[in-house]
Every structure is written in structure tokens, then in C-alpha cells.
């Protein structure tokens, strides 16, 4: 089975902040769309959510803002699944600026931002975490790859 496709987006004028670059809220928006694509790619799509009233909830995230992104920039987001257990999944998104709306990042491209997330599968009727269906858990397992060097970091204390 194949991996997840890149998510593409273009930076809109209203996403630019008072410093003249992409506002942090919109990095989160684009990463959120990448999580939606991950859900679709693992069987947790809108049909699943409507029929089961179960969904994936992000419970922890860590974002790194690495480079400025300007208005009109074409973005590509790569998603990596780092692991899944009965009720939770850990994954990352890496955002790149690419030359065109459907372009792929060069093999040596540097990410402009990254995020690492922990999500829990929730039964919304019961109001609690519940196990993934076997097909979803199997898809997460198929997609699992080694973590990038930056995964698992935390924010260090400041002096």
C-alpha cells in the first residue's frame, strides 16, 4: 500500500501578519489540513466519522517555526506516522516552500516549519477514548516510519 500524498496549499494575503510573513495561526491551519488528510488516508474520513461518531482528537503538539514564509508561497506538507497504539497515534508534519502549487520539495530541501502531534481516537457519544478499528490500526502500522532527528524534542529552559 502507498504512503500518504503531500498536502499542498498557497499562502493567502490574509494569512500574512504585521511582521510581513505567515502568521503562526496559519501554520497551524495548514498543519490541521494535513492532519485531516492523514485521517482520510487512514480510513478516519467524514463517512467514518458520521457513521461511528468517532474521530481523532489532537491532545499534544510541538511546532517549530524555522523560516519566514511570504505571501503567495506554495507549500507542500509531508506527513510521517511515527507509531500507533490501540487508542492513540503519533505523527509529524513537515512544511516546505516549493516552486509551484503541486511541486514536491527537493530531496535536500529544508523545512520551513515542523510539528509533532499526539492524537487520541475518541468516541464522541461516550465522551472517551476508544480503540481504533483494526483496519485503521493496520493502516497506521503500514505507514509507520522512523522518526526524523528533531522528533521528541521539548522546549529547553531559558537562563
From TrEMBL:
Any coiled-coil regions, as ranges: none
Organism for this UniProt entry: Streptomyces violaceolatus
Pfam families per record: 4HBT_2
Descriptive protein name: Thioesterase family protein
InterPro entries on file: 4-hydroxybenzoyl-CoA_TE, HotDog_dom_sf
